[in-house]
Amino acid sequence: MLTRMITFMGKMDNRNPKSAHSNQRTGQKQFSVISLLLLAVIAIHPVFYSCGDKAIGADGTVIAEFEWNGKQHITLEEMQQEISELPEYKQRQYQDKEGLETYMLLMAESRLILNLARDQGLNEDPEILKKVQDYLHELMVKKITAQEIDDKLALNEQDHLEYYEAHKEDYVRPEQVRLMCITLTDKVRADETYAQITGGRDIAEVAQELSDKGELVGPGANPASPGDTDYISRESFPAGTEPFLDAAFAAEIGAMHDGVIEVDVQGQMYYMMFRKDEARDAYQKPFDEEDVRRNVERKVEREKRQALMDEWIRQLRERAEVKTYIDRIPEAPSEEEAAEDEPKAEETPAEGEPEE
Asked: I need a surface site. Which of 210, 259, 289, 323 has the fewest CB within 10 A?
């Protein structure tokens, strides 16, 4: 047991049971002091009972004890309570006897370090107290918000259906087409390629060759299926591609578009040729589709929560008779004023000129 206790000193890593356990490092020098203190405690006071020994007191079954400004204990019940508050994946690490022994040692390490920190007055450190106060306020706000908003948030199927009916246009799959498309950035290369296809070569075969050479870009450039754009809509591509999209939606299925289409996207020219393989009309997605229902439920909950929050805050403001004095807030300086306030760099003498 002593060997294990020594081994576990210094292993305050992500296995540690509480965030407080993992945030108490104070540097290598202090760590060595803690190790020596712990060894001294173990040498003088055998703190861990053997499997057959139990000391049951008013606070529970003592599984570890040490001297530090008086006798201090760790009980089985305390350990079990701490473990029960961990995430489930961490709890699984401490299910068997070996895992429980590990956690017991980590608890002992943590308490020893905390005692040392208290002895050094860190429990009165202003920076630490400020963070504690900030965290306390955060927890209080979360708690009261949960009581006033989350606990009162009641939604039903009718709420979801009403939202869906009011926003049906948001759940329409637009008209789409599927193409066998070749997109290049070199006009000469594009004209040569188009000539090959109109001369009898299959566009899919040509797309595969160009993909193997790394020449394909844009629509149809997926190396897993060269030339295949999958289903695309008019919203699939950026401004500048309208000539290509207009042609794609107007083309006959199975037909090769006549000529190479040139498009300009943010100053970059692209040269495109395609065969239209499939098309499908716009489609109203029903509420019962899984992705639709999930999206509706999420949006309804967000809207209802925000409505409750707004009403709650309004009532608080009225109750407190909140007054604001916007005129007392100074205007932000203009860019010109800000530039004038900036310290000017000292002028450096021109090269060859003597400094005064």
From this structure: 323
d(CA 162, CA 156): 10
The helix/strand/coil state of 13 is: coil
Measure Cα distances from 70 to 48, 65, 74, 104, 323 in Å.
17, 10, 13, 20, 54
Q: Are 113 and 34 in contact (CB under 8 A)?
A: yes
The helix/strand/coil state of 139 is: helix
The confidence score (pLDDT) of residue 334 equals 81
Query: What CA–CA distance (Å, rounded) separates 279 from 253?
Result: 7
Phi–psi pair at 270, nearest 5 degrees? -130, 145
Class of the CATH domain delimited by 175-281? alpha beta
User: What is the rounded CA–CA span in Å between residue 153 and residue 305?
Assistant: 7
Domain residue spans of the chain: 2-126, 175-281
